[in-house]
Amino acid sequence: MEVREELEALRRELVRANYEYYVQDNPTMTDYDYDHKLRRLEELEAAHPEWITPDSPTQRVGGAVSEGFAEVRHRVPLESLQDVFSMEELSEFDQRVLEAVGETVYTVEPKVDGLSVALEYENGLFLRGATRGDGLVGEDVTENLRTIRSIPLRLPEALPRLIVRGEVYLPRTVFAQINEAREQNGEPLFANPRNAAAGSLRQLDPKVAAARRLDAVLFNVQYVEGVSFETHAESLDFLERMHFRVIPRKMCATMEEVQKEVSAIGARKGEYPYDIDGAVVKVNSLSDRATMGSTAKFPRWAAAFKYPPEQKEARVLDILVQVGRTGVLTPKASLSPVRLAGTTVTSASLHNQDYITEKDIRIGDTVLVQKAGEIIPEVVKIVKEKRLSDSTPYLLPDHCPVCGAPVARDADGAAIRCTGAECPAQLLRNLTHFASRDAMDIEGLGPAVVEALVNAGLVKAPGDLYRLQAEDVAQLERMGRKSAENLIAAIERSKKNDLSRLLFAFGIRQVGQKAAKVLAARFGTLEALRAATVEELTAVDDIGEITARSLVDWLHSPQAEHLIAALKEAGVNMTSAVQIAGDKLAGKTFVLTGTLQQFSRAEAGERIEALGGKVSSSVSKKTSYVVAGEEAGSKLTKAQSLGIPVLSEAEFLALLEEP
Questions:
Q1: E strands along 307-415, which residues?
Q2: Which residues are catalytic?
Q3: CATH class as words, domain 83-306
Q4: How much is the average pLDDT of 144-166?
Q5: pTM score over 0.70
């Protein structure tokens, strides 16, 4: 088979597999075969970039990071719908339809609670996608929409032009997984799938949108050339033939049938893969729609029935505190079982101390519970008249319930964290950070290997890394002898790292890379740093009182003392190669750009800091000097435009060596 023929055959196979998997939910190709074929296609396209097409399955990741979204004026306005909140209001809508066009047939569809978008195709190829915006003008989110695998990049028919409308959503299962990960990492939870979908679709980096695993369902043909329809149902059938995922619908000949279906959709809200906030009732005949027209705000031929949130009372049996991977203490209410949205709820997150205090939630309280976005159980409010007479306000513990270390509130937020250096709840996160590139830089010790070591019981604290044996590591899944030896060698090399890396690796609150470098250079040894008082620490440039107190508290905690002793025994370096050699560059800010010959940028930065100067990553009016090496780029141009002194490498060396 010729290379071009193989390439095109692979595309057809993979496009078909995507459609079967993401739209039909009926895959016929195994994941292994799909990955193998996709890799082969990537190889062929890499060898022949001139043959890459916009609809290729390899182009699903999207383009480069955007600086912002361009405006798109919709060819056909994306109208909103008039809400109704009762069966009586639905009957009134039916009466208006009867008066306008007489007897008609309706379609009833679930109303997906996502982000409305318009997709535009030209000659069968996906051309552009935009958010609804104000209905007339939206934002161009084409690159992010390309990452959604249920949206076809090429249609089975090369229609001259097609514009369709749909809803982008975050599947319930994906939403739950994302929030679980965010909770473990101490990040704020997404309130509901719609907020998560909207935030994901408006990411400037398409790779972030791709990682969120968004999906889309279509519910309307906005504009089409080359084909015509008499009814809405016909247009949806057409969209299915074009390989779109299309909203489920039911035809209803009477308002009684409509109301029955609306109630049925409400009863099975929890069964849909997406969150719904209502049911949409539409006149099926397109000619009847044209007769009825629209008001200034809504089409007269449709209505959205909105379901009230289901709320029930439950008793707070206890408040349990979990410790996430970042040390954040998260309270959770243990509830008397209550049936909500199709499932039994026995617990609800209380988020943080501020949330508990604001709602005044106490153990023993009767509370009103609902599912936020039909998924996450939440406490709406307490039922004060049912409060027990002996109840007391609830406060989170002042010590970690896992390791017993003191807890501290974030200076810039509501999170309360465990300060334990060896807290078991934080072990995976702490080890991963300890080994990361900017910390101890242990090559090969990524999250998967860290988890394998912890699960095997080989590592219970960072100090245990330095007692690992190659033969034990080799027994882990996917390691082998050579990989194990390489890992042990990387761990051994990390013992020689500068004190600044070790300080950053500790993961002390408020002590980032910059502070770690400054402190290491100023005090020289870990022992000298441990002997420093808060007053001595705050005398150092860029070290504030909050950072100083956090550092002192951490360095003198029992767990930190145990960790430091273990690392010292293992031979880990605890001194700084960069010592403050003077202050002749004090008050001066440098920006490094281009390639230097005498030393790396990191080494140049260390020399500057050793003489009291600062290093910045960006040029501004506050920059004192820009040091320009070979192939200096936009930073040099900006410095010249601002009139900032530019030093060659030779001039920079001369400045460093001046008496």
A1: 311-323, 329-340, 343-349, 366-372, 376-382, 407-409
A2: 111
A3: alpha beta
A4: 93
A5: no
